[in-house]
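Worked example 3 (structure in, sequence out).
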């Protein structure tokens, strides 16, 4: 089971620790932060207490306007649920009452300079990726003109060499050899590296190369959404390779179907160019255009 701690949050967003610095090991089990509202008037049904609690200008101003007795009651009731932590946005001050209760209950109280809406976006994105279900597969992940592609095939078939050619044409490497796939939504797979192989590409007869140092930082990016699964395979003379419109095929990763294409290799074939064509063709399909349908319409118009 994957987990993220409050310490991870502090490190990622450079948060100021106002209270509970001995409790930064507390785990954050959910991928969305919560902005309390009804809880301040005493309604705690369905309170997502296991989420990070974010207090913005609206919440802090409301607490400041309460009497000391009411404020202590509201905060006292909330901290009894022991959320992982509280984060106050916009560097707001006058938080002695919050500090007091958080210290007593051992709950980290943190502060950021970010506006509330911006911090919620950042923390939700961070937690969604950090807590996402993931698998590791053998392959290469590249970003071709903004389109995330997974290159698969047997060892030695030419995946890394194809990626190298794509990089030289201005595209980007994401991961070589080991690709980590993260499910960050019901229809979204993110491809990334495992940290150890970051920026490295293994080329047979050459060895390891660091693409960022060799071709500049634009040759690499940390992650990309996977929208195409391309399998590189050896050429088969008896295979049908000239169909106008192949039946759609898919590869399934963590219950998400990704369009699948097989590219057969033969000496002299511009494999990197075919990958570029596949990426551009996928983009056109997303815009509602099919070259095969267009061609058939032209044939029918001549009848």
């Amino acid at each position: 089971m994957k987990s993220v701690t409050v310490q991870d949050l502090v490190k990622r967003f450079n948060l100021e620790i106002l209270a509970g610095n001995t409790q930064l090991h507390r785990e954050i089990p959910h991928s969305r932060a919560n902005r309390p509202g009804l809880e301040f008037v005493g309604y705690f049904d369905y309170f997502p207490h296991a989420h990070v609690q974010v207090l913005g200008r609206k919440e802090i101003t409301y607490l400041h306007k309460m009497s000391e007795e009411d404020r202590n009651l509201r905060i006292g009731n909330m901290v009894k649920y022991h959320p992982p932590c509280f984060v106050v946005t916009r560097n707001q001050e006058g938080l002695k009452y919050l500090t007091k209760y958080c210290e007593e209950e051992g709950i980290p109280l943190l502060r950021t300079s970010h506006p509330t809406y911006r911090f919620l976006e950042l923390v939700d994105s961070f937690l969604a990726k950090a807590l996402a279900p993931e698998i590791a597969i053998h392959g290469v992940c590249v970003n071709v003109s903004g389109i995330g592609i997974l290159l698969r095939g047997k060892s030695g078939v030419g995946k890394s060499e194809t990626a190298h050619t794509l990089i030289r044409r201005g595209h980007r490497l994401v991961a070589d050899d080991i690709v980590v796939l993260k499910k960050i939504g019901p229809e979204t797979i993110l491809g990334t590296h495992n940290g150890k192989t970051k920026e490295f590409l293994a080329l047979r007869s050459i060895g390891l190369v660091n693409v960022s140092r060799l071709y500049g930082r634009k040759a690499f990016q940390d992650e990309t959404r996977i929208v195409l699964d391309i399998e590189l395979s050896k050429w088969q003379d008896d295979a049908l390779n000239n169909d106008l419109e192949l039946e759609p095929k898919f590869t399934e990763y963590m219950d998400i179907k990704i369009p699948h294409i097989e590219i057969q290799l033969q000496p002299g074939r511009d494999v990197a160019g075919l990958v570029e064509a596949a990426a551009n063709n996928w983009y056109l399909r997303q815009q509602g255009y099919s070259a095969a349908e267009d061609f058939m319409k032209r044939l029918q118009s001549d009848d």
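Notes: The chain has two domains: 4-130, 134-296. The mean pLDDT is 91.
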